[in-house]
Amino acid sequence: VICRKFSHSASLNAIKKVTVVGGGLMGSGIAQVAAQAGQNVTIVDLNSDILEKAQKSIQNNLGRVARKLYKDDPSKMEEFVKEANNRIKVSTKIEDGVDADLIVEAIVELLEPKQKLFNRLDELAPQHTILASNTSSISINEIGSGIKRKDRFGGLHFFNPVPVMRLLEVIKSDEMSQETYNTMMEWGKSVGKTCITCKDTPGFVVNRLLGPYSAEAFRMFERGDASKEDIDIGMKLGAGYPMGPLELADYTGLDTNKFVLEVLYQKTKNPVFKPIPLLNKMVEEGKLGIKTGEGIYKYKK
Ligand code: 3HC
């Protein structure tokens, strides 16, 4: 009886150790919010340069948070940053990260590498460990199709910039247990997010709705209906968005936009997601947005 009770279950609030696989923008943001919440975090990435960059950006962003929390108290600011930083370890070896209560994957948006990673994590991680993917559009069930612990697996989809955006989408895989779902929702709350739930459907809630909006903004610009600036000003001042759709595309990366639209088109066949020649051309030319110095707009490097 005792074995049954304790073997497969990660009870509520049990998430004390988190591993994030993938040290890019999303991975480092996820690691940051978990460390801020008092959890011990390991970031695993095959590339040590990426890990170094992740540590620097986390340090900077913790500074931003600390300045906000402890405006008039420099010593508290310093302590906050130091303590959160001390909770973060990095490694290039997956074996160093498997001993965790929750492992969140935030690697490249491709099905096969994700499947391989989850199969490996499933073999190496302890029984109770919950596995989750931060994919923005790939099917959660497909990603986890090769693992055994399907009851302890699902999607945890964060938004960029992770430390600022207040939402977390919790994606229910077909075989996810109620207990895993509850633990994921609790964990999301513990890292300061408001959680919403979505079935494993293309683009989940947010990208399914952002997709047509963003696609039509590109087409509008492509047709020359309005200037890029006016399209963005239109949605900021006319609809209250913090960024216009073209600014947002530059911010998230045109390659990511293209990829999300492709997946949505492939899965839904809805013509609103059809390829956009302008977007394809820009991605081919390496104009991916802020990260490359040029997208719809130009940026100082
Ligand atoms: N880490 C920590 N804090 C950050 C930060 C970061 N990376 N970036 C910004 N901040 C903080 C700033 O310190 C500032 O805090 P304060 O208001 O307390 O001083 C606050 O956020 C606002 O930042 P700024 O003043 O620099 O700039 P803005 O007011 O223009 O806000 C923004 C920047 C938060 C990015 C805002 O423009 C925004 O919300 N944009 C829309 C972002 C969005 O829609 N993201 C979702 C994209 S879709 C996605 O991610 C899904 C994926 O699957 C593709």
UniProtKB/TrEMBL annotation:
Gene Ontology CC terms, in alphabetical order: mitochondrial matrix
Main location as per UniProt: mitochondrion
Chain ranges of the 3-hydroxyacyl-CoA dehydrogenase NAD binding domain: 17-201
Residues making up the signal peptide according to the UniProt record: none
Pathway: Lipid metabolism; fatty acid beta-oxidation
Site feature Important for catalytic activity, where: 157
Enzyme Commission no: 1.1.1.35
Oxidoreductase among keywords: yes
InterPro entries, A to Z: 3-OHacyl-CoA_DH, 3-OHacyl-CoA_DH_CS, 3-OHacyl-CoA_DH_NAD-bd, 3HC_DH_C, 6-PGluconate_DH-like_C_sf, 6PGD_dom2, Mito_3-hydroxyacyl-CoA_DH, NAD(P)-bd_dom_sf
Example GO biological process: fatty acid beta-oxidation
Protein family: Belongs to the 3-hydroxyacyl-CoA dehydrogenase family.
Designated name of the protein: 3-hydroxyacyl-CoA dehydrogenase
Species assigned in the record: Danaus chrysippus
